[in-house]
Write a structure and sequence with these properties.
It is built from 1 helix and 3 strands, in the order E-E-E-H. By secondary structure, it is mainly β. The protein has one domain. The two termini are 20 Å apart.
Length: 71
């Protein structure tokens, strides 16, 4: 389980921005998954299992924000 969400047991919406582009993430504690709900034009993402992504892209930087809290 992702340590950032280890103590978040309710579905959670995170509204974030990176390099001036806004996006919204949804945390599903039942599935222990995080997905992109919406994003501004110019924001690209790919759904993947972290271990698989990291195997091919070990230089990937992990985005971090303040600890999430349930809505």
């Amino acid at each position: 389980m992702n340590q950032e969400f280890a103590n978040v047991w309710k579905p959670t919406t995170l509204k974030e921005s990176f390099q001036g582009k806004k996006f919204t993430l949804l945390w599903n504690p039942e599935a222990q998954s995080l997905r992109v709900e919406s994003a501004e034009d110019g924001v690209s993402w790919a759904y993947s299992f972290w271990f698989a992504w990291y195997a091919f892209h070990p230089e990937t930087e992990v985005y971090s924000t303040d600890s999430p809290t349930a809505d």
